[in-house]
Structure to design on (124 residues):
């Protein structure tokens, strides 16, 4: 259901991180700290409108890895941006659910980028 390209961006360039932790240790964030990040995905979109495509899963997460908000974002071949919610991930701990010890697959994003993607959600 959730496919990942290990540490690669949409343009297939390696993600760059400025973390001061080892590959087996999570970054030191306060458990209640809120941060925003994204991960690259490939496959079919949740809304069924996009097949064999790619995009990003955006997360608003606590420092301990608990997902507060989860979104799927992609851009159509016509340049239209689409976002859908991923409610089944809300409340899960990203690290425990996906089995990662660190956030290497996650790219930090500024809060305003997350807010922009979130406002693209089309309510029925």
């Amino acid at each position: 259901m959730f496919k990942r390209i290990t540490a690669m961006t949409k343009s297939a360039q390696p993600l760059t991180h400025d973390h001061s932790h080892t590959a087996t240790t999570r970054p030191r964030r306060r458990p209640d700290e809120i941060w925003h990040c994204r991960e690259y995905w490939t496959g079919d979109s949740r809304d069924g409108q996009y097949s064999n495509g790619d995009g990003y899963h955006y997360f608003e997460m606590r420092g301990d890895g608990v997902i507060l908000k989860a979104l799927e974002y992609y851009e159509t071949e016509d340049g239209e941006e689409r976002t859908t919610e991923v409610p089944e991930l809300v409340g899960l701990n990203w690290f425990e659910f996906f089995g990662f010890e660190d956030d290497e697959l996650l790219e930090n994003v500024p809060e305003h980028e997350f807010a922009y993607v979130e406002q693209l959600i089309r309510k029925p």
Remarks:
- The CA atoms of residues 10 and 112 lie 20 Å apart.
- The longest strand covers residues 34-43.
- Residues 34-119 form one domain.
